[in-house]
Amino acid sequence: MTSYFSRLSLAIVFITGVLASGIASALPITKTATINIYQLCDNAGANCAATGPVGDTYFAGSTNNIWEQAGIIFNFNFVSKINSSAFLHINDSVTGDSFGDLQLTYGGWPSYTSIDLFLVQTITVDSAGHRAYGEGWLGVGGLVMGMQDIMGFNGGLGRIDTLAHEIGHNFGLQPSSLGGVDWHSTNPNNLMASGSIRSVPTTLSDISPNGLGYDQLTLAQVNYARQSSLLSNITYDTIPEPTSSALFAIALLTLGVSRYRKFG
Q: Would you say 103 and 57 are in contact if contact means Cβ atoms under 8 Å apart?
């Protein structure tokens, strides 16, 4: 339970930090989004894509840590396994085998209110055989992660910023109005830098806003992302301070109860 005054003080700290650095600090958590998870397996239901490292299933912890900068937290909802050898390894250069085909077949049209996350083994992006860690729609919900390559990174701990980066695309980052090249930031410490130049955290202690400063979001990015239709508001119940008349009424009630117990 968070009081109005504690949220206000956190907001003041955030604004002060932004004015000083231009980089977002942690906002009070006031926005949430649902991530619906589909795990791909082969036709026999075996050889399934990994679901992330021990202690950080789906990279939920690291993703929430990164997006804390924007006051956003995610609800991870496992939907089902999908037994499909054809889509276990995505190849965007093959008709019928792309991420778009996978999304339309099992998730439907990309949503404006929730995010579909597909865990596959690998993602091949062109006829030359180049692979990607992840792909995500721009401005709508839906992304895919190549877990074989992701989990092969950093000695099996995984590339912990991939999901957070692709969610940024779902939120509409990086449109040209916010800078960048080819929809990506040119700052290697920014979350929305391309994977080829992005400073990659190996543990949570590397991540902004509390760590070394990797995966930063600017104030402009935060403001843009928080307008996404994929997000809904979190409301906090507050307990108002009692007035003097209310305190007097409570005192009378307490006195009456004590007398009843004494003489009953």
A: no
Give the DSSP letter of residue 171. T
Contact 90, 144 (CB under 8 A): yes
How many residues would you count in the chain?
264
Q: Is 104 left (phi over 0), alpha (psi -120 to 50) or beta?
A: alpha
CB contact at 8 A, 119 and 79 = no
Contacts of 25 (CB under 8 A, 6+ apart): 13, 14, 17, 18, 69, 209
Q: What whole-number distance in Å separates Cα of residue 111 and Cα of residue 93?
A: 24
| Segment holding 225, helix H or strand E | helix 219-225
pTM listed for this prediction: 0.79
- Say which residue, 187 or 156, is predicted with more confidence: 187
Q: Which residue has the tokens 């305190």?
A: 247
Axis-axis angle for helices 60-67, 162-170 (nearest 10)? 50
Q: How far is the C-alpha of 201 from the C-alpha of 62, rounded, in Å? A: 10
Q: Residue 21, Cβ neighbours under 10 Å: how many?
A: 13
In order of start, what are the domains of the chain with their CATH numbers?
Answer: 4-263 (3.40.390.10)
Task: Give the pLDDT band of residue 167 (cuts 50, 70, 90).
Answer: very high
Q: Which of 225, 56, 233 is nearest to 147 (CA)?
A: 56
For residue 3, the tally of other CB atoms under 10 A from its CB is: 13
> Which pLDDT band, with edges at 50, 70 and 90, does 237 fall under?
low
What does DSSP say about strands 72-83 and 134-136: parallel, antiparallel, or unpaired? Answer: unpaired
- Residues 175 and 220: their CA atoms lie apart, in Å, by 11
Instruction: Let me know: does 249 contact 95? Beta carbons within 8 Å.
Output: no
- The two three-digit tokens of residue 22, written as one number: 């231009």
CB contact at 8 A, 73 and 29: yes
Q: What angle do CA 119, 123, 124 make, to 5 degrees?
A: 170
